[in-house]
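hey so i finally got around to running the thing on that chain from the lab meeting. sorry it took forever, my laptop kept dying and i had to restart like 3 times. anyway pasting the input first so we r on the same page abt which one it is
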Amino acid sequence: MTLQPMHNIPARGGIDFDETPFLVIWEVTQSCDLACKHCRAAAQPIPHPDELTHEEGKALIDQIAEMRIPIFVFTGGDPLKRKDLFELIRYASGKGVHVAVTPSATPLLTREQIFKMKEAGVVRLGISLDGSTPEIHDAFRGLPGAWARTIQAIEWANEAGIPIQVHSTLSRHNAHDLDNLCDLFEKLAIVMWNVFFLVPVGRGQLGDLLSGEEFEQVFAKIYELSRRANFQIKTTEAMHYRRYLLQHNLEERKMGHGHGHPGGHPQGADYEPGAPTADAASRNHAWATRRVNDGKGFVFVSHVGNVYPSGFLPIHAGNVRQTPLAEIYRNAPIFKALRDTGRLEGKCGACEFKEICGGSRARAYAVTGDPLAQEPCCIYQPKHWDPELEQTAAAFEQQTPQTTR
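ok and heres what got predicted. didnt touch it at all, straight out
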């Protein structure tokens, strides 16, 4: 299956992230029949009584269309639990909005529903697969049979002609399974593999989080796999993979191995549906270094209309029922702070890669309570950062009377 170009999407680097996000995700409902171990939403079977109405959903879509946001994702919970899902997809498609949907692999996800999504205007289907075997995936998802249902759904989507993006949430439960997952995906005709690095919120547990050293090991594995995979590979909430990629790109150039990894330039893309390029390395690494981060090119709208920098960064910035999405994104203090790399703290603030990386702001908040703190799972030592001097300055600030500051 070939992913066809999507027209009218701004060129790479052509979006001012202070004005317009690259990606908006709308949690159309929190209702879901799964009980995934890492669920951000801690989803429940019954829909929330105050979730956005059909008309409010259409009003949000109108704003997305007006802002010319490249990608709009319907997520959940399980979007198929929302009765007006197909009407909303058709409405968005009619407005020229490119809609992706991320359904849950439950009995609701039938062949008929997948073909209805295609007919309604869905341009990409995102589905989660966290293990190469039923034992790994079903334990993760809390429902026996989820693995087999996911494989079947991918096959149906291929039949319907909907490009498939597979999401795998990486934690201690499945970090050993990346080779096997890649081999499986080679057989399933997917167009992109999104490796999501756990943020310990919702049901996600801190004990499942990989260490900084383990992050680097996984980066090395993804780097290796991306050289040979016939689909694109991207990472989510692992912004420092961009640093890893650029370091290795430079190292390969120094060693005379050609011109380094294609796409190892800061103007690469991160999540931009378009035609795959000619070779595997180009297809994969062209995605690696777009500067999207939590609140910087990225917006999450909850089931009740609350707006957040990320679904994993629960700092409320406003509600679309009271304030236009564009105004919240452009002017809310938390969004403005997250887009200002001069406000990053610790190693991230001193890092020479902060403009293309910036660390996961969601993970920093989940671990420290401060969204501007340094990335907790990065072992890189910036060239101009002195940890001892940093600790001394912090201790001095704590001891200095407030009146003299």
